[in-house]
């Protein structure tokens, strides 16, 4: 079992729709959770982090964390073509090492 | 504020040669990380420096890889001798705090071993 699992996609949504990206992790001791966006040929860029169970909103982005289910998600409201990228879920455990998922490719169709 | 700087951006070397990658973290960031993405795979942790000390090097593939961070500033990652499977994109990242609010990544070095 991979430490951080994501559906590789591609996930295709129409412009203006909500994109929902999901991630599960295996280490119950994980403390910090991150979503990075990576455009093709570029480096990952942090867009959200969350530590506590529940929702955290930042503009069009909402991160959701459920530690009991070992589940993290990212919602992107009013999706734009510029949101088309690979979204990486990342999890930091007690050793301060961050483990990345393989990423979900998102396409937003104009 | 300057970001994380890596160079070279690309390197093509022959199997058996040596390559040294360099990373300059954001000024004041004590934590420096090396990651690698091999084609089609997820970004994999290599090691973590806190200042000049290696906090965690559990991800280093083998003893052909040597990382240093003299003086706690920039870091180098040397691969000697390079093998074909070492090809990939090597990312450096830095953060200010151990209990990270996330990393700032450099633009990466694309290494091709032929």
Describe the structure.
- The complex is a heterodimer of chains A (110) and B (114).
- Helix content of chain A is 0%, strand content 55%.
- Chain A has no helices and 11 strands.
- Chain A has strands at residues 4-6, 11-14, 19-25, 32-38, 45-50, 54-58, 61-66, 71-76, 85-92, 98-100, 104-109.
- In chain A, a hairpin with a 5-residue loop joins β9 and β10 (98-100).
- Chain A starts with a strand and ends with a strand.
- The model of chain A has no long low-confidence stretch (mean pLDDT 94).
- Chain B is mainly beta and 114 residues long.
- Chain B is 0% helix and 49% strand.
- Chain B is built from no helices and 11 strands.
- In chain B, β7 and β8 (75-79) form a beta hairpin.
- Chain B is globular and about 40 Å long.
- The termini of chain B are far apart.
- Classes of the chains: A mainly beta (110), B mainly beta (114).
- Chains A and B meet through β4, β5 and β10 of A and β5 and β10 of B.
Secondary structure: number of strands of chain A: 11
Q: Give helix and strand order of chain A, one letter per element, not per position.
A: EEEEEEEEEEE
The biggest sheet of chain B, with number of strands, parallel, antiparallel or mixed sense and barrel status, is: 7 strands, mixed
Low-confidence stretches of chain A: none
Strand content of chain B: over 45%
Compute the number of strand runs of chain B: 11
Number of helices of chain B: 0
Mean pLDDT level of chain B: 93
Oligomer: heterodimer
Compute the gyration radius of chain B: what is it? 13 Å
For the record, give the distance between the C-alpha atoms at the N and C termini of chain B, rounded to a whole number: 37 Å
- The SSE string of chain B, one letter per element, is EEEEEEEEEEE
The amount of beta strand of chain A, in percent, is over 45%
Unreliable runs of chain B, pLDDT <50, ≥5 residues?
none
The gross shape of chain B turns out to be globular
Helix content of chain A: under 10%
């Amino acid at each position: 079992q991979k430490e951080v699992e994501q559906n590789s996609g591609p996930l295709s949504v129409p412009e203006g729709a909500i994109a929902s990206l999901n991630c599960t992790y295996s280490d119950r001791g994980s403390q910090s959770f991150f979503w990075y966006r990576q455009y093709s040929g570029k480096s990952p860029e942090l867009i959200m982090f969350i530590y506590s169970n529940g929702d955290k909103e930042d503009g069009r982005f909402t991160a959701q964390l459920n530690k009991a289910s070992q589940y993290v998600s990212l919602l992107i409201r009013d999706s734009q073509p510029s949101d088309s990228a690979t979204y990486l879920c990342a999890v930091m455990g007690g050793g301060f090492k961050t483990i990345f998922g393989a990423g979900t490719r998102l396409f937003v169709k104009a | 504020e300057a970001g994380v700087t890596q160079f070279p951006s690309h390197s093509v070397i022959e199997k058996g040669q040596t390559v040294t990658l360099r990373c300059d973290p954001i000024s004041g960031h004590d934590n420096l990380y090396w990651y690698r993405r091999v084609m089609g795979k997820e970004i994999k942790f290599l090691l973590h420096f806190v200042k000049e000390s290696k906090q965690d090097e559990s991800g280093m593939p083998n003893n052909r890889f040597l990382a240093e961070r003299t003086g706690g500033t920039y870091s180098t990652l040397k691969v000697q001798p390079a093998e074909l499977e070492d090809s990939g994109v090597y990312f450096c990242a830095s953060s200010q705090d151990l209990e990270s609010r996330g990393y700032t990544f450099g633009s990466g070095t694309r290494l091709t071993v032929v």
